[in-house]
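In response to a reviewer's request, we include the raw inputs and outputs for one of the modeled complexes. The two entities were modeled together in a single run.
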Amino acid sequence: MTAKGQPASLTHLQRLEAEAIHILREVAAEADKPVMLYSVGKDSAVMLHLAVKAFWPSRPPFPLLHVDTTWKFRAMYEMRERMARELGFDLIVHRNPDALEKGINPFDHGSALHTDTWKTEGLKQALDLHGFDAAFGGARRDEEKSRAKERIFSFRSAQHRWDPKNQRPELWRLYNTRKNPGESIRVFPISNWTELDVWQYIHLENIPIVPLYFSDVRPVVDRDGTLIMVDDDRMPLRPGETPMMKSVRFRTLGCYPLTGAVESTAATLPDIIQEMLLTTTSERQGRMIDHDQAASMEKKKQEGYF
Amino acid sequence: MAHQSDLISTDIGAYLKAHETKSLLRFLTCGSVDDGKSTLIGRLLYDSKMIFEDQLAALEADSRRVGTQGGEIDFALLVDGLAAEREQGITIDVAYRFFSTDRRKFIVADTPGHEQYTRNMVTGASTADAAVILIDARRGVLTQTRRHAYLVHLLGIRHVMLAVNKMDLVDWSQAVFDDITAEFTTFAGKIGLPVFTAIPMSALRGDNVAERGSAPNWHEGPTLLSWLEAAPVGDDAVARPFRMPVQWVNRPNLDFRGFSGLVAAGSVRPGDQIRVTPSGRESRVRQVLVGTGETPVALAGQSVTLTLEDEIDISRGDVLATFDAPVSVADQFEATVVWMDESPMLPGRPYLLKLGTRTVAASITEPKHRVNVNTLEHLAAKRLDMNEIGVCNISLDMPVAFEPYAESRDLGGFILIDRMSNRTVGAGMIHFALRRSQNVHWQALDVDRAARATLKGHRGRVIWLTGLSGSGKSTIANMVEKKLHAMGRHTYLLDGDNLRHGLNRDLGFTDEDRVENIRRVAEVAKLMADAGLIVLVSFISPFRAERALARSLMPEGDFVEVFVDTPLAVAEARDVKGLYAKARAGELKNFTGIDSPYEAPESPEIRIDTTALSAEAAAERVTAWMEGELDYTI
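The model returned the following structure tokens for the whole complex.
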């Protein structure tokens, strides 16, 4: 991204990219067994791209971990397999065996239990099972208030707990990766990126993303004001409920029964960015797990959620 | 949200092109509690339309529930993100917020004002290009204002804005504004803060934030936002000589060997001649890779991978630098240390120090002084408690590449890590490396025999083997050294061969020269033992007086005399080197035992009868005696 000729100063995206790559390399150099959490969303897509760039021509020296809930969109599973194959990552898929056995799902058990069992517990299981001591995540500080306060290297106890009132000081580009056995660090290389930065970077670097981000005619039902896509026949329809075909897209991707679609005709990246810039609701509004109670994200994070 | 640009709705492609080239400014807001920092940030986000409708709705609900603005929108609730902060209405930890204008993208670090969260403010300041220091116009320059100004300066932030807030509450009085500015100017001069800009402002109403608003026209300076848009980004790092701490060695196969890192200063191009620190090896840059592609030039701030023309040994922690302005190396510094942990900084305790990409063992001296951050007084101190700042000397267990902090944040800033808890307990800024003359003085004060013994795990001693030529001293000394070395002791063997050929080559074999020879050996042995080594001395050393001198140089119990007792007849019969024959033939003058006396020790610590013990058995005995009789734990 550097122009020829006289040195100029860096653009904001160059600065952010350089910072993220520096962070990725620092963990690769200092952690015993790092892993990159892969959620298949757009932030994960940027993370994969940065990992490839950081270590080129070597392969990134860590595997991908997808903490699966079995309730993701089908298009996400297709994307996951494709990206791991094309970029040459080792892919680990973890599904919480307890949740699998009990058949935990958002319809019968509610979003809170579903998320806690599949995602929070599943993540802790997977990290413990493989002994990963550093896990990259694609969280950003502009997403939510408690995230805005979180360090880039976020230290977790052996019980995976985050202590927001006692975070390690984090100065300059000096990250303290030292920890005792059992403790781990969550690392957020794109902490300082905004949603617009992510989209613009995807656009500039031509990064593949799940097609669900682009508008298309899809079957949806209106549930309490949220448009839910009927992605497979596991979705129980309420009496009188018929899927409608609407031109919709998703601003954020998670479990399909918990992810609201927005009506949109944005079919290209510039369209999406334009829509985002003109829109009036923030990104996580489409996710149903955040607004259960005030400070809910902070509480989840303390319990080990990413 | 409407980015000011109409291009978003009319021509998104053109907007994206324009946005691509925006620079990034990181700044922090600081100042006394209740001076309105969080309100200001909330206002900036609000005015640049970065607050979405759902966030605004949540904010309105929160304002009614726990707000401090009597039901009006409490912008502080936007940025105080932790439950404890919202309950207590204070900022505990630094929060990062983002907004952009047509010209620039901004990252704001909203830092806490309370003294007990100084470490969090320092975290926010360490990455900032500029600082906005708020003052409540009704209260003027307070203790916290001074402390924050000092910290801003300490962290090397050169672009400072003094925002005199809540001007609406003093009826926009120019006299009030001028008084505050004058008082702050005096203080800024005292701490060496460079120029700063002052503006009168009302964050709550938005006057002089993004727009003039109802700000009176007696102030002609910029609004806060226009100042932020114009503040120089980063520093002059690009113009400085090239430096890159190596983060990671990229070695996918035998044909590629790259060195990855973030360019800390300057720029780098293929063909540039570089020097590796600390090894001093030199080479030329072959390729500069940014991501997956080669680039003709990379600048300070970019993450790159370099390949070199020559295969030289480079590993993580080394620093690549331009050939004609190599980076300095040192293992002792004077630095300002900010202590950040509940357990205090104790002089002499071993910590880990991370500087650039290198982590080394470090110990810190007693502070030269502590700074009262409120009054700037220098106080005597034996230690540093949490949030205290002091000037200390730091000693590392190996030399590292560095630059003064004033010249480079990347190579002059370090963190200190506790070896047991692994917490980040302190941060420091290098002033300069200590020169030799300063070191001598300083070491005499602080790093003594006991300190070195602690580091090595044993005390320095002298084992002095005396005996006739051919008695077997050197053979035994050699074996003893190997055994001690195998046990992890730090040893050195002094014998005629390595001293007579160098230090003592001006000496012959007269009695005077023999005395001088042994005196020098004794002094060298003493220094080495003082440095913590177990020194094995293998010299004939025929005179009691010189052996007594050697003994007198050492502390009681640290001099072990070993008499390698071989009768002259036996030694002469062995005559391994044929020296006795030459002496008998008159070809060697002053030969001990023949025409020069040997004064046998009267009460050596150990006596070895070589007619009864083999060399191996003798070495075993000396070693066993050392390990059994001497207390290695000091």
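As requested, we also summarize the result in words. The first helix of chain A runs from residue 12 to 30. Chain A touches chain B through 75 residues (CB under 8 Å).
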